[in-house]
Amino acid sequence: MPARWGKWTAAEILDAVAGTWVSGSLSTVFTGISTDSRHIQSGEMFWALKGPRYDGHDFVLTALERGAPGVVVDRAWWASTGCTCLGSTPGERAVITVDDTLEALGDFAWWWRHQHTAKVVAITGSSGKTTTKEMAAAICAQRHHTLKNEGNFNNLIGLPLTLLRLRDDHEIAVLEMGMNQPGEIGRLTRIAGPDTGVILNIGIAHLEGVLDIEGVARAKCEMVENMEASGLMILNGDDDRLMTHAGPYPVRKMTFGMGPENQVRAEDVRDLGLKGIQFILAHGHGSWPARIRIPGLYNLYNALAAAAIGFNLGEAAETILQGLESYPGMNGRFRVYSLWGGITVIDDTYNANPSSLKAVLGSVKSLAQGQGCRLIVGLGEMRELGDAAVSSHQEAGGQVAAAGADRFFALGPHGREMIQGAIQGGMPRNKAKRVAGHDEMVDEISHAVTGGGLVLLKGSRKMALEKVVNGLERIFGPGKMD
Predict the structure, then answer these.
(1) Which pTM does this prediction carry?
(2) Topology given in CATH for the domain delimited by 116-326
(3) Residue 90 burial (CB < 10 Å; 0-12/13-18/19+)?
(4) Is the Cα torsion angle 331, 272, 139, 480 positive or negative in sign?
(5) Domains of the chain: which residue ranges?
(6) Are 472 and 446 in contact (CB under 8 A)?
(7) How many CA atoms lie within 13 A of 346 on its CB side?
């Protein structure tokens, strides 16, 4: 997704990124920037980034041929290759060189963010980031022109590109921040300069980069460490590990959770099953009847975090309540589909880690019991778990058994460990099976669900279990979103 809302001059970009001017006019105006030469529009500057599977410098000439009036490139590339492939004097095209184009992209986004008065909210955590971002944006957008990052634009590329979409009429920006290595949340926080920071929880995720759950806690708390002194941190007060790590930092804090000591709380919670959750939202001396339409008790924490954001931004309770209730949910995130034959599919296929899986299994167990129906679970493996991969997948299988699943199907290289864990947890061997692919999982579930039932599908993004959702829809008729 390119940033296309700005009108920047080459001189402004040069100053913001501490770059070196090579050619072209400093007064050249750019309508935006793009990191993808395939979709670049005339007037956009091409920003050449290096990735694990590509190098944007290989496409600099293509970008110029497609109308880019200038490029930002690495100094080393220009010295060794660029000046040869483009010619020592590339005419009127602006060329800016920097030590590191990714670092420079963040620096430029920081500069652009500080040209605007919009309040910035940054959200991180092991699970629930996107749902909380969407809920908070639904609250803010009722009264303010609100920017949010789309899709998975929550990393060192996506977040700067989102900030570069800021316009003068934006009043609030709600941004999620992801990470898989130490230092990323700190860098993202410095780029975004949030007025409000949010840490939802600490769980087992991205262990390849941070080794263990304590590493996760340290990585997430880089947000607290890098918050500006005037900012406010919103923290899950029920997460002891989070509070232990975040507590010592001398920043203003607000807590949310179920416990009575939290400043934003849920009281008198009533699980409505597939129809959502009713509760009393309490803050300060006030309390209000509230509802969210998405099921899953774990989503209550996301709603409380979004409400805390709203209160901190000065929103009225009525605005917060309306925003929460209006949020319809998102595809791939505990989205409920009713199919023919009394079949309910819960599509939670967007991503998975051990913490989010445990929370979701607890919710579907309650839903299946409430409906009095059989539970069928299809899981794809979880990625980026490092040395904890084997034990985490065995534990996942055990949790499926503990949830009372009638049938269990696992996909991926660690599917074997999930099946082993389920059998060790008491599931009969003939009820748990490792499948070879999406089509086999569709076939197995379609036979297992004859007569009705509740189907949960969840896995890491790369497992693409939405293909199973689509396959079940083809067999049982077009789905109806509840």
Answers:
(1) 0.91
(2) UDP-N-acetylmuramoyl-L-alanine:D-glutamate ligase (3.40.1190)
(3) buried
(4) positive
(5) 8-100, 116-326, 335-481
(6) yes
(7) 27
Print burial letters for 273-298: b (CB count within 10 Å at least 16), e (below 16). ebebbebebbbeeeeeebbbbbbbbb
Give the total residue count for the chain: 482
Torsion of CA 196, 308, 314, 108, to 10 degrees: 20
8-100 maps to CATH 3.40.1190.20: no
CATH 3.30.1370.10 describes domain 335-481: no
Residue type at position 371: Q
One-letter amino acid for residue 171 of the chain: E
Would you write out the chain's pLDDT as a tens digit for each of its 482 residues? 456 556 889 999 999 999 999 988 889 999 999 999 999 998 999 999 998 888 999 999 999 889 899 999 999 999 998 777 776 545 678 999 999 999 999 999 999 999 999 999 999 999 999 999 999 999 999 999 999 999 889 999 999 999 999 999 999 999 999 998 999 999 999 999 999 999 999 987 766 767 788 989 999 999 999 998 899 999 999 999 999 999 899 999 999 999 999 999 999 999 999 999 999 999 999 999 999 999 999 999 999 999 999 999 999 999 999 999 999 999 899 999 999 989 999 999 999 999 999 999 999 999 999 889 999 999 999 998 988 999 999 999 999 999 999 999 999 999 999 999 999 999 999 999 999 999 999 999 999 998 899 999 999 999 999 999 999 999 997 555 44
Name the phi and psi angles at 414, rounded to 5: -95, 15
Three-state DSSP string of 325-379: HHCCCECCECEEEEECCCEEEEEECCCCCHHHHHHHHHHHHHHHHHHCCCEEEEE
Measured distance CA(380)–CA(403) in Å, rounded = 17
Phi, psi of 291, deg, nearest 5: -150, 145
For the range 79-82, what are the long-range contacts, defined as Cβ-Cβ under 8 Å and sequence gap of 24 or more?
Answer: 81/57, 82/57
What b/e string do you get for 57-74 counting C-beta neighbours within 10 Å, with b at 16 or more? bebbbebbebebbbbbbb
Cα 188 from Cα 196, distance rounded (Å) = 14
